[in-house]
Amino acid sequence: MSVPPLLRPPSPLLPAAAAVAAAAAALVPGSGPAPFPAPGAAPAGGISFHLQIGLSREPVLLLQDSSGDYSLAHVREMACSIVDQKFPECGFYGLYDKILLFRHDPASDNILQLVKIASDIQEGDLIEVVLSASATFEDFQIRPHALMPVIPKGSSVGSGSNSHKDISVSISVSNCQIQENVDISTVYQIFPDEVLGSGQFGIVYGGKHRKTGRDVAIKIIDKLRFPTKQESQLRNEVAILQNLHHPGVVNLECMFETPERVFVVMEKLHGDMLEMILSSEKGRLPEHITKFLITQILVALRHLHFKNIVHCDLKPENVLLASADPFPQVKLCDFGFARIIGEKSFRRSVVGTPAYLAPEVLRNKGYNRSLDMWSVGVIIYVSLSGTFPFNEDEDIHDQIQNAAFMYPPNPWKEISHEAIDLINNLLQVKMRKRYSVDKTLSHPWLQDYQTWLDLRELECRIGERYITHESDDSRWEQYAGEQGLQYPAHLISLSASHSDSPEAEEREMKALSERVSIL
Predict the structure, then answer these.
(1) 313 is annotated as an active-site residue
(2) Alpha-carbon torsion (2, 9, 155, 288), positive or negative
(3) Residues 192-208: pLDDT tens digits?
(4) DSSP E strands: which ranges in 317-447?
(5) What is the mean predicted confidence (pLDDT) over 290-300?
(6) HSE (side-chain half, CA atoms, 13 Å) at 273
(7) What pTM did the predictor assign?
(8) 326 and 352 both lie in a single domain
(9) Which is catalytic among the residues 120, 183, 222, 313?
């Protein structure tokens, strides 16, 4: 079985709530996207550029048609052909009239320009393929995913203004900030030229809180174009997030709603785990960074499972990064398919992304929170190898249901046996044999001194301890002494100063209650 390359799983086309140009015009009345400079002359043989579908980039050559011109229809047909060959299960061919094309601004990773005519495409350009909102859920049955591109340090943001004078806000979000009868433009500035991505619910823009200057991400959904089935997923995501308050879960700030649109304001983050994997030197992450990220994912999952919430769609692109730091804080996002479900309860609705689906979902036999643990196993495999465990060129459903995956020598001969052992215990077809959150956290691969130090440094940096526990301090300090390792002096002083505080006692009781509940 050949090893599949790592792409975003087979939902590569990002649906937009409307064309970015139209949405931008709605945000800034009377304005549209700023035009790019006039394209240069095409080479004699045509225009050579790259098509980006998800994070897969394909070199293409656009030739002149019989009239001697270039046609966008040809570009759309090429995109459909690529998707049809690489992801035949999408059933996408023939939807080229619903494709939108966006040109990446060479000066900024965050600016996308709607391609209106073929002459907008220049030699060497990167053109991203996006589905318009007119492509409904029935058009293709593979669920789209959220995208939060990396935001480079020092990147400039657009300075557009906005106007929503007809807004009459009606919000039913109890635990986030409530704004009633307030024009969103009086509270937030939305940057229509700063497109952060196209998620399952619409287009995500950069924004800023006018009073504090705090950066935010704002999802804008066109309700008139929004399928009813996906609207229920949005409501579900908001309902889940309003009851979740944890450093490892993306923060929902507030929500505005008009008869035409919904505005969901969330904290602004800096990319996702998949982008971190793909942008790494080898196209995969070293073990020490993977341990660092996976431990944070598990701690956030423990909180979800304690509240009887199953994420149901864990994958690297739903693990957002709070900073561009090499050892970033991570936060889970995209709760559109999350379910409230107990340890012994089972749900039967189809959820998730194919490459990360657990066998029980495919067999329609019901699932519980162990569903998330299968996904964690796939994430570890993807992070360490840069490939999926299941080959998407073959019948992926059969492979998953039989746990038919391999560890090719390249790169697995360089990866520890402990990592492979943990993956094997997570990718168990039988749910009762699959490791739980706490059993995974206790696995020798994650019980690592350097990982613990890295996590403690993160907690010190963000000023909150929620990943590690005070009760482990003495154990790791003793381990360092026995191994002749240097134990950081500032961690000793921190442990001594906080161990007897009321806050520490409260955290210990909370952590203990979560662990006991899950056990």
Answers:
(1) yes
(2) negative
(3) 989 887 655 578 899 99
(4) 319-321, 330-332, 339-340
(5) 98
(6) 28
(7) 0.62
(8) yes
(9) 313
Long-range contacts for 401-405 (Cβ within 8 Å, ≥24 apart)?
401/359, 401/362, 401/363, 401/429, 402/429, 403/359, 403/427, 403/428, 403/429, 404/1, 405/381
Q: Are both 193 and 227 inside the same structural domain?
A: yes
344 assigned to a ligand binding site = no
**List of E strands, 158-313:** 188-199, 202-209, 215-222, 252-257, 261-267, 309-310
In angstroms, the CA 23 to CA 16 distance is 10
Q: Give the CATH number, domain containing residue 332.
A: 1.10.510.10
CA distance linking residue 419 with residue 362, whole number of Å: 26
What single letter denotes the amino acid at residue 46? G
Nearest-CA neighbor of 515 among 440, 424, 421? 440
Do residues 127 and 192 both lie within one domain? no
- Which carries the bigger pLDDT value, residue 390 or residue 519? 390
Mean pLDDT, residues 179-199 taken together = 81
The residue among 356, 372, 378, 379 whose CA lies nearest residue 290 is 379
Averaged over 361-388, what is the pLDDT?
Answer: 85
The closest of 445, 428, 435, 506 to 470, measured between CA atoms, is: 506
* 144 found inside a domain: no
Question: Which DSSP string do the residues of 491-519 spell out, in sequence order?
Answer: HHHHHHHHTTSHHHHHHHHHHHHHHHHH-
- Total domains, the chain: 4
**Does the pLDDT at position 294 exceed 90?**
yes
Taking the C-alpha atoms of residue 98 and residue 94, their distance in angstroms, rounded to an integer, is 9
Residue 147 placed within a domain:
no
Q: Single out the residue in 267, 302, 327 at which a domain terminates.
A: 267
More confident residue, 199 or 315: 315
Backbone angles phi, psi at 264, to 5 degrees: -110, 115
For residues 397 and 511, membership in a common domain is answered with: no
Mean of the per-residue pLDDT values of the chain: 73
Do 397 and 485 sit in the same domain of this protein?
Answer: no
Same domain, 385 and 281: yes
**Pairing mode of beta strands 99-104, 112-114:** antiparallel
Domain boundary residue, one of 237, 267, 297:
267
d(CA 214, CA 251): 13
Assess whether 290 and 436 both reside in one domain: yes
Tens-place pLDDT, residues 351-363: 456 677 777 776 6
Show the domain range for 51: 14-131
